[in-house]
Amino acid sequence: MSDEKQLLTVSKFLSLVLRHKPETIGIQLDENGWADVEVLIEKAGIYGMFFDRELLKEVVTTNSKKRLAFNDAMNKIRASQGHSITVDLGYSHQKPPEILYHGTGKQSIPSILSTGLEKRNRQHVHLSSDMETAIKVGQRHGKPVVLKVAAGQMYTDEFVFYLSDNGVWLTEHVPAKYLEL
Fold first, then answer.
1. Please, which residues have CB within 8 angstroms of residue 99's CB and are 6 or more apart in sequence?
2. What EC number(s) does the entry state (predicted)?
3. CA separation (Å) from 70 to 78, 168, 181?
């Protein structure tokens, strides 16, 4: 078993490479965001990040947020969501619960209440189905504030929602009129 620091270091590295900058180590993701496991391990080692298939498997299985996933054959790996590069994760439209939540830092509230939730440099806005997860997300941005999102009404108004493999709800934009403090 690897130590927690090593797992965290590799997990952060994989998030960077598989969500944002595969070119950092000279790999290419396919159109669905998959990277070949053997190529990833080889290229990461060339750039000083050493891990083997077992450690990679441990990173994927122990991550509480399930940010990474293997394909069925376990010869490819990808990030479950959060990409700033264009990939088609192959998720189908889903009907969301009536209420979803979005955690953010207190300093962002005036802007969000003015413009709504924007995806910015990502492919989607990320929403949680529970308050606890939204609070944890908000804590990463300072003093946490949780917004309630009228997802059911948005769906009725023909907004599209997806549910990622790790349980994160995704949508393109949440206009301010669907938000409540």
1. 148, 149, 150, 151, 152
2. 2.7.1.-
3. 7, 17, 37
The domain in which residue 104 lies consists of 100-180
3-state secondary structure of 53: helix
- Give pairs for 37-44: CB < 8 Å, separation 24+: 37/70, 37/74, 37/75, 37/76, 37/77, 38/75, 40/77, 44/13, 44/17
Residue 90 in any domain: the answer is no
Burial grade of 105 (CB within 10 A; 0-12, 13-18, 19 or more): middle
- pLDDT value at residue 124: 92
Please, what is the average pLDDT of the chain? 93
Residue with tokens 């298939």: 53
Domain holding 135: CATH number? 3.20.170.30
Q: Both 115 and 155 in a single domain? A: yes
